[in-house]
Amino acid sequence: MLLKSFYSLVVVLVSGLVLVPLVTAAYHVAAQPQMLALLVDKDVIAALVNTLTIASAALLVSMPVAVILSWSVVRTNILGRSLFRNVLVFPYYVPCFLLAVSWITLAAPRVGILSRLFPTWRVDLYNWWGLVGVFSAAYLPLILSGLCNAFDDFDPSLEEAARIAGAGPMTVLWRITLPLMIPVIATSGILFFLAILSAFGLPAVIGTPARIGVLTTKIYEMVRLGGVDGVVHGFVLALWLLVLTAGLLFVGERIQRNNRYRLVVGKVSRASVITLGVWRGPLTVTVLLATCVLVVLPLSALVASSFLVVAGDFSRFTLRNYLYLWAMPELTRAFLNSFVLCLVTAAVCSAVGFAIGYFRDRTQLPGRQTLFLIATLGYSLPGTLIALAVIVSYGTGWGIESIALYGSVVLLVFAYAAKYMALSAQSLLPAIANVDHSLDDAARLCGATWPRVLAQIVVPLVRSSVISVFVLTAVPVFTELTMSALLVGPGTETVGTLLFQLQDYANPLSACALSTILIALLAVCLPLVQRAQGRGWA
Question: Could you state, in order of their start, the residue ranges of all structural domains in the chain?
Fold first, then answer.
């Protein structure tokens, strides 16, 4: 009876966080079908075309670079490959908006560091190619991380057989390795494309000055300027994101189904490292240059600019950008809000994700599979769509002003939990499934109740995975911007929205200072994340 009551509570919680907002938003659209005409509005179609062309171009630029770099740092004997891998993957943990700020600092026209140092170069980031380039550099670690892990786990038997037959390293790469990596490459590319579709901060600070609108910035304008009707209009526009997301997920599933190769076969041996011979030096230099251009140069420019009096002018240095932050009353409030939000969201997601995984693997309760699917729905939806759905439901209180939550911290928790609950459920289910059911059966034969089995057997054995999920949920929530930009109100500023405010119009050099602080905090937290991943979270 207690188990069923607990299950019912989780069902209500998950449905309230995911289904209720989506159903409410869909009802608003269905009640005003004339608003669907917005989907084919001239400006909306232009924003849609910009979104698709920019994401496609960025993917075409990033994918070959990611494949070459991941293969080089994992499968070859280049010098310092472990160091290169750590540095190249580090931006995976850095919010993409911070990377956008670093590239603006480096390559903005007239005031950028490159423009100051090399005035004849005419560096201008605020154009279509500049937006594609920054997207490519900022989201490259998303592909790189997945490919590095896949190369790590690659079954070496086919490659070794090809080498024994006389094939050279390049022949093995093109004829054996890459064809077998097609599902991983496709999945990484789809995740990259989805990330760009739902990105807001980067196109807002680079695309808006260049007058290049995308769907997310168009939605933001409607919500901020249109009141309640603007929220509904924004949700209608977000349907384009929903359609594109569903299409990409369908394509990814078909690719996975048609390429059912097993890269990991359970053997202990790891993929062999290729000896490059005379090509070791040139490839090492190539990877070094890529690391400097993609990571070291923009982040160094960001840190250096935080101490400048005038952007791009290295003749004078100051601490006043940090003092400006210190004097801002919003700074302490933003850090406190973000800290509380990341802890609460991570705790809720970890607890609910654990419960969902437990119900699905260790019970026969009806609807447990459907519950899992509902919980994982949020991560496949764009953050903008989730934020708008939360606004038109809990934000407006369904027209009852006394229960409306718009502008409150609680609304942010609802949106964050709906988005990141999928990460917890998908990660903790395998960990729970790996605990042998015979342990539960033995405990019950000794008279233990299910709460005692849960507390003394299952929880201790998956504790490291729960800690890992907690950390990996808290890190992105701390600097989240896409949903926060639509949900924050007076007094509920977050670190992400404060950074956006500084970079967009208040004080760009202080935005560099805040970015430097955040990167330093992430660098301190990164070993904790890696340790949590090493404890068994995959």
Answer: 1-31+321-538, 33-266
Please state, in angstroms and rounded to a whole number, the distance separating the CA atoms of residues 104 and 408: 32
Q: Which residues contact residue 285 at a Cβ distance below 8 angstroms, ignoring those fewer than 6 apart?
A: none
The pLDDT tens digits of the residues spanning 276-318 come to: 788 888 999 999 999 999 989 888 888 888 898 887 777 788 8
Distance CA(204)–CA(7), nearest Å, equals 42
Structure tokens that stand for 104 in this block: 């603006």
Task: Please give the span between the terminal C-alpha atoms of the chain, in angstroms, as a whole number.
Answer: 34
DSSP at 167: -
CA neighbours within 13 Å on the CB side: how many for 290? Answer: 27
Exposure of 179 in the CB half-sphere (CA atoms within 13 A): 7
**CA 330 distance to own-chain centroid:** 26
Name the packing angle between helices 383-390 and 409-433 (round to 10°). 130
Domain 33-266 has CATH 3.20.20.150: no
CATH 3.40.980.10 is held by the domain 1-31+321-538: no
Q: What H or E segment, with its residue span, contains residue 238?
A: helix 215-258
CA dihedral 399, 401, 407, 410 (to 10 degrees): -90
User: 311-368, pLDDT tens digit by residue?
Assistant: 777 778 889 999 999 888 888 999 999 999 999 999 999 999 888 988 888 888 888 8
33-266 shares the fold of 1-31+321-538: yes
Q: How far apart are CA 286 and CA 88, in angstroms?
A: 13
Closest CA to 113 of 521, 512, 501, 506: 512
* The model's pTM: 0.79
